[in-house]
Amino acid sequence: MYCRTLKPLLIVVLLILFGSCEKLQPEAPPDNSILDGVLTELSLLEQTRHLKGDQSFNDKHFHAANGLGPGFVATSCGSCHAGDGKGHPFSTLTRFGQADSNGNTWLEKGGPQLQHRVLPGYQPEQLPSGAPFAKLIPPAVTGLGLLEAIADETLLMFADPFDLNSDGISGRPHWNTVPAYVQIRAGAIASHDRYIGRFGHKAAVYSLLQQTLGAYNQDMGITSLQEPSDPYTGQKNDPEISQNEINDVVFYLQTLKAPMPRNIHDPEVIKGRQLFNQINCTGCHLPELKTALSPINALSNKTIYPFTDLLLHDMGPDLDDGYTEGFATSAEWRTTPLWGLGLASQSQGGKVYLLHDGRASSIDQAIRLHGGEASNSRNGYLKLTGQERKALIRFLESL
Amino acid sequence: MIFRHIIAPILFFTSGTQHLVAQVDSSLFRTATPDTDSNVLNMDAIYTRPYLVSGNYPVAIGGYLESNWQHSGTDGVSEGHQFQFRRLTLFFSSTITRRIRFLTEIEFEDGARHIAIEFAALDFELHPLLNLRGGMILNPIGAFNQNHDGPKWEFTDRPLASTELLPATWSNPGFGLYGKWYQGSLMFGYETYITSGLNDSVISNSQGRTFLPAVKNKPDRFSGNGNGEILWNGKLACKHNKLGEIGVSAFTGIYNTWQAGGLQTDFKRRCSAWAIDYNNSIKSWGTRIVGEWVCIRTEIPESYSQQFGAKQHGGFVDIIQPLIKRPFLHWEQAEINLAVRLEYLDYNRDTFSETAERIHDETSSIVAGLGFRPSTQTILRLNYRYRLQKDLLGNPPEQSATISLGISSYF
User: Fold this and answer.
1) Is B328 within 8 Å of A6 when comparing Cβ atoms?
2) Which has the higher per-residue pLDDT, A1 or A313?
3) Most exposed: A29, B278, B292, B364, by fewest CB within 10 Å?
4) Which one has a higher pLDDT value, A248 or B128?
């Protein structure tokens, strides 16, 4: 009796199981609810490279045996950029040693970055007394390839270093020197042998390759062919990471998708966007940019919505930490791209830590801390009614 | 003596299998009954296995295999169908002379990717309460480490606490004592060993967290003790025939290499673990309950990263309910069981110094299982696991699910 009943039942259960196992597994979250994800239009070969870079970026942890340290800040790329998003105070970097455009004068004392964590048996670096410094929270890494693909001439179109239009905003590109290993992009514009930087809070970094090599070296103590000096000992070491792996990680960063907006048809979001334009936040946080031709097809000639001009702006004394990089002043900061802002809490442990050092715990606080060239927009925000401010923040959260 | 009782039989059974099969009628083998069914503790697991013996030959052999089909997915990304040959394990035991026994367990995992002597020890019985054991010893921490044979469990995957907090099937060279005492329905057992075991991998590993299982990956750990420090391991167990068995176990030792070439290179840092395990069968319902909880304390260098937890804990509980027990397809003792496993691990119970907030890095899982046992030695099992994994910061958890169909059997 049991056999007669159970045998067909068992066969049916197994058939259902094999046929529907995908349905019994968690679905992928909607694309616009997460930051990590790959650009569409990549070739199969490019997707394979992206995947290799993804594994190195998110899954590979360095330790004593594979090159970590001896001084370091983090053990993996992913530990500073969880889910490819913004970092947490746990992974905050401390840069020090440069107060003006005369360069870093504290390199002998361990500059430009503090490695406050060390392998067992070593002493951690201490911030030298009297050194100018700033704490920097790791930014989100999504959409970076698209930002890299914007032509220099496009950025220069929006620069207004002498505020000729008298709107109180005088954004300027960060013309910075680039290391010899950096390959200059086709069509790049130079000024006195300097090129436009676009990455990092001070826009001091020219390309994603330079950013990646610097992060491996200064954040994890990993030496490479291009950055052979160990930041803790100052000695030149053999490369602790292969060139192929670095290239894969750079490719991964280049081919991460742009953050996608949500609730764009919500009337409150629409109203918030109008207010964002009305109080001229768009003077720096440019909603729309276009990419130029890129060696990666999926990055070429795209219209993107990063809400940044990638230019330096004087943000006033409250955000002036007395530290700088390259030829920026200590009060100047690159306009942070706002895309993905609404998903910041998903990579920062349920809270938000905004502005360059994470000092703002809400979007409202971050706006109120804007000064300098952003004073007019901040004042415009403060004059809005409570409902209007709520709509504006709702719009920013939709990005 | 050693050659005759240990090496020769192993060579005989491994290299001459074809000859044996051709010449010997398999019906001449008989299954040796385990020591006893009622007077056993978890610590007896290595002996309470089915063995095959032939005539008066002084060696008994046995083993088990495990193979699965799995389909798992995480947040919508699936690796597709996975057919896994998890392990083939061989046991050999021999009574060398009265009161001296030898037993070994050799495991081939994932095909032949990992081959390990999991256990190989000589036991000298001086008194039932005083036995000397030396060799490669399965460390008695929790219950699973010593009682890990696949066919005994209703789940295709080992408990997370036993694979991701503790190193599952963790064995080390060493020596120690064990003993048992029982009277009426009460039984008491103890084990205490000194072995080598821990190494720098506890906090220097590819997981980027405090991860004891990484100590198993040191290839030279059987030939010497990297840091020259002793690992002490002990367990007390008490069993009442109605109330079940409860075990309390612990180990402690210095895990880091603190000296080399006569020079001190670091301070000594200790890693300790405590575990409590319980198992019982409710006779009226036939329900079986198995559980284990482990706490680990690791001294982390002050200036190392906070992602390496100084405090960890976690455990599991399995509840197995027989549904049907009757002859089925000519199997006289067939049994169908419903099972559920609840698991939780916290890899890092510390707080961030920057925000004074809790560090997460935790996982929880629920597994539902249906097991069909044609005999007590064989199981065909169907499992569904749903798992949540939170990162250090407590961001939205990664969700994964796994469906498994597996077989495991002693032979």
Assistant:
1) yes
2) A313
3) A29
4) A248
Looking at the structure of chain B, the number of domains it has is: 1
Dig out the tokens for A106 from the structure: 């504290």
| String of DSSP letters for B309-368 | -SEEEEEEEEEEEEEEES-BTTBTT-EEEEEEEEEEEES---B-TTT-PBP--EEEEEEE
Task: Tell me the backbone φ, ψ of residue A343, rounded to 5 degrees.
Answer: -105, 10
Q: Which residues of A touch B326 (CB under 8 A)?
A: 2
In this structure, what token pair is assigned to residue B123? 């036991």
Q: In which band, very low, low, confident or very high, does the pLDDT at A48 lie, cut at 50, 70 and 90? A: very high
The pairs formed by A188-197 with CB atoms below 8 angstroms and a separation of 24 or more are A188/A152, A189/A152, A189/A153, A189/A156, A194/A327, A195/A152, A196/A152, A196/A155, A196/A156, A197/A173, A197/A326
The pLDDT mean for chain B works out to 88
Rounded percentage of chain A residues whose pLDDT exceeds 70: 98
Residue B292, min C-alpha distance to chain A (Å): 28
A21 CB neighbours in chain B (<8 A) are: 71, 403
Listed by number, the residues of chain B in 366-405 with a beta carbon closer than 8 Å to a beta carbon of chain A are: 382, 384, 391-396, 399-401, 403, 405
CATH number of the domain enclosing B340: 2.40.160.10
Kindly report whether the peptide bond that precedes residue A112 is cis, defined as omega within 30 degrees of 0. yes
Tell me if A209 is assigned to some domain.
Answer: yes
Average pLDDT, chain A: 94
> What are the φ/ψ torsions at residue A274 (nearest 5 degrees)?
-60, -40
Predicted pLDDT of residue B21: 38
**CB nearest to A63's CB, from B204, B266, B357:** B204
Give me the pLDDT at residue B330, please: 84
Residue with tokens 């100052």: A234
d(CA A34, CA A23): 21
Number of domains in chain A: 1
Q: Enter the tokens of residue A11.
A: 């066969």
Helix (H, G, I), strand (E, B) or coil at B223: coil
Q: What angle do CA B36, B38, B39 make, to 5 degrees?
A: 70
**H or E segment at B236?**
strand B231-240
In this prediction, residue B3 carries a pLDDT of 46
What's the whole-number mean pLDDT along residues B340-344? 98
Q: Give per-residue pLDDT as tens, B4-56.
A: 554 444 444 444 444 433 444 555 566 665 544 467 888 888 888 888 887 77
Calculate how close chain B gets to A119, using CA atoms only, in Å. 6
Condensed to tens digits (0 to 9), the pLDDT of residues A117-157 reads 999 989 999 999 999 999 999 999 999 999 999 999 999 99
Q: What is the domain range of residue A90? A: 32-260+280-383
Domain of B202 in residue numbering reads as: 2-410
Position B14 scores a pLDDT of 43
